[in-house]
Amino acid sequence: MIKEFVKNLEGRLKRPLPGAEAQKLMMPVESINSRFDLNQNNARLGGVLILFYPSDGEIYLPLTQRHDYGGTHGGQVSFPGGKWEEGDLDLEHTALRETSEEIGVNMSDIAVIGRLTDLYIPPSNFRVTPVVGFTEKKPQFNIDPYEVKELVETPLSLLVKKSTVKRKDILVRGSYSLNAPFFDIAGKTVWGATAMMLSELVEVVKELKSNL
What cofactor does this chain's UniProt record say it requires (predicted)? Predict the structure, then answer.
């Protein structure tokens, strides 16, 4: 099951992607179009991993809930990943390394099949590259309790359901609210940059399903 899906997805990722138009479907109302300007010369670089794996006859991907340390993205649900560091060969390496550090999946067990569209995140001044990969077997996750509060194993079938997308006012850092669409995953609110990257993924997956 996963091999056929990955083969079709890999081929799709080699063609032009939905990009910003798909990302905007999950953009907060108050967000600004400058986040789609990828020529931010002073932006820090980061990589996150969208990791597909089989479990119980379905295709899953892991999300992580951060601890709420009061930072820009504290307490939010996101992909495993982080900032580029000296020594990383490229942003794919960054995404794989951070995934290994955060949730314990060996880099050598992950096959990279492509990327989605980069996204600039104004609050933290990061330009993030979403890397797409898979494992043929369900990983033995081993989360770093300092980096990750909770692992959120997410079935792909849930992401593509219309009912999973909702909207509400979200309180940001306890000081102001944003009216934002979000993915309701296991009762968790997945919004902001992660939701925008997931939105592009969902559009691509729906396109694959319609062509099968």
Answer: Mg(2+); Mn(2+)
pLDDT in tens, 38-70: 777 688 999 999 999 999 999 999 999 998 766
- Number of domains, the chain: 1
What's 6's domain CATH number? Answer: 3.90.79.10
Bridge-based pairing state of the strands 77-78 and 165-172: unpaired
- pLDDT tens track for 161-196: 999 999 999 888 667 788 899 999 999 999 999 999
Cα distances from 89 to residues 94, 132, 178, in angstroms, run 8, 17, 37
Which tokens go with 121?
């995140």
